Amino acid sequence: MTWVLRASAAAYVAAITSIYAHHVREGLGSFEETPPAPEEVARRREAVLGLGLPFTVAEEGGRVVGYAYASAYRPRPAYRFTVENSIYLEPAIHRRGIGLKLLERLIAECEARGYRQMIAVIGDSANAGSIGVHTKTGFRMIGIHPAVGFKFGRWLDTVMMQLPLGAGASTVPPTE
């Protein structure tokens, strides 16, 4: 079956909510412990889009099977050229290249918008799939925060990875 990437739409909120709920209930990629309601997912999606940031879905056979978005890394103005990425897939489609394509598109869209750095905060230092897909796109490991999360009865690390976008830090960004 073939899949396509497209900009998210409000009609995709139910599918996005379902995919994310699985990761909250079963996975370690999100440190949330209670899945948010569709209304909260819709609010979060609108917040991303309201900042002019990309929010992309992957569809296979007309069904949303994954999504990725960029969000503000931190709220203070000095961070305005840095974004953080998030990618979530249905478990059945892992290792088929869809996460890689979602991340590549997210990188391209953020570069086109003038962002200079992308940060990945990966839940669980044993998350080889996420670390691997970020490494394939050029992210480099910048650190590990050991034992900062506690979920499913165990301590979890977060892995920090970073990718320069466009000119990165080699030039001063245009003044606004």
Q: Which sheet architecture does the biggest sheet show?
A: 7 strands, mixed
Gap from first CA to last CA? 45 Å
- What is the mean predicted local confidence, pLDDT? 95
**Cα Rg:** 16 Å
H-E order? EHHEEEHEHEE
- What is the number of strand segments? 7
User: Approximately how much helix is present in the residues?
Assistant: 25-40%
**Spatial order of the strands in the main sheet?**
1-2-3-4-5-7-6
Structure, explained:
By secondary structure, this protein is of the alpha+beta class. It is about 30% helix and about 35% strand. The protein has helices at about 15-25, 40-50, 100-110, 130-135, and strands at about 5, 55-60, 65-70, 80-90, 115-125, 140-150, 155-165. β4, α3 and β5 form a beta-alpha-beta unit. α1 (about 15-25) packs across α2 (about 40-50). It is globular, with a radius of gyration of 16 Å. The model has no long low-confidence stretch (mean pLDDT about 95).
Secondary-structure blueprint of this entry?
Blueprint: E1 3-7, H1 13-26, H2 38-50, E2 55-60, E3 63-72, E4 82-89, H3 98-112, E5 117-123, H4 128-136, E6 140-151, E7 154-164
